[in-house]
Amino acid sequence: MSVYLGLPGGLTxxxxxxxxxxxxxxxxxxxxxxxxxxxxxxxxxxxxxxxLLTLAKPLMASGLVDVxxxxxxxxxxxAWERLLDEHLGRTVCIGVSIMTGGGxxxxxxxxxxAAKQHPFCPPVVFGGPHVNVQPEQTAAxxxxxxxxxxxxxxxxxxxxxxxxxxxxxxxxxxxxxDDGGCVVCGTVNPPRTGNLGAYPWKLLDVAKYIRxxxxxxxxxxxxxxxxxxxxxxxxxxELTYQRKYSAMAAQDLLDDIAALQAAYGINGVKxxxxxxxxxxxxxxxxxxxxxxxxxxxxxxASINPNDILKARRAKLPLLERIAESGCSRLLMGVESGNDRxxxxxxxxxxxxxxxxxxxxxxxxxxxxxxxxxxxxxxDETEAExxxxxxxxxxxxxxxxxxxxxxxxxxxxxxxxxxxxxxxHGFTAPASLEDWSxxxxxxxxAPWTSEATAxxxxxxxxxxxxxxx
Length: 468
Known about the structure:
By secondary structure, the chain is an alpha/beta fold.
């Protein structure tokens, strides 16, 4: 594959960031696959497969194998077949990452089905968010040879060692193998993975993931710099993942972003961390670093309203530094405009009055607020949903006028609200195939009407035009 040269202003890629090349070293290969996700048709989306990058790094560092990445959001079924033809002969396993919803499970099964039609197809191991909440059901599927539950950084290298005969399978963290007659389980996979490091960008054609984001900048790249969340919202998958919070240090993150900017001419970064501001001093250190280095970068991230309240109590100039450093957008999960729902149902640890206060502070610093809401919780009344819509009306009076996105409540396995949804008549998918049609953008609960779904769509107002 030739090195990409189509960058603005005559920029070319540095050797560390060249387009992906497959080098023959004589070592066996691990194929890591990220199946396609079916998002809403108007979603501005170019998400890099960070789950695979975090797996690839320790695999490459082990020196045991070469790694090849396949992103189904960028490549089609024909490209998958070409990759299998090229690499399958020396591949020790295929690793597949799946999440619940978005059609990814169905695409994963199609990809594995195609792989298993090839002679000498190696074992296929599944991991990712869905495996963590449905391990037994996933492991029992005939197309799945093994699963790895918990952080793959702790288990993937050990799994490869087991395949190479260097360690017993029973010592592989999070391993489960179910052949229908016998179940093999490894050791417990601890939730802590340690600090993140720089990603092995050379495995991807990074230039393909740059896009014109209407809320950030004309050449924006998505990025994940931390894992885990310290909050306990009762609908969120982070509760089931139980990952200990870990993050790249501010200076390491700045170094990596500066290198990406130099290589690709990016002028924006959109962080997809669950909550980018868990460590407030790390956040301020990053902002100060952007200013000190003169990187001239626009950026966006997710924030919990309690992060801003904590910064106030600690007398930290959080929003001031955020604004000065070029942050253009803060995404905040508000969830509801009703205090009972916020406190008793969601456990958001915030009130409607505090949400208005925090949102006003964000707007006062010239930052676009992007607020997400959920309607259709179990036991939520029509009047309580109206409280949510009235809060959105108040927020829209701010300048700059914020974005609002309304989601329908989707029961997520393993969360407290999952059990409550089952008690209220929700029927859970009974197989991995059934999960492939699980769509969190449509009504999934029997108590949610089409009128509720239509109102949610009507009240969703996002900036989808290209950035200026």
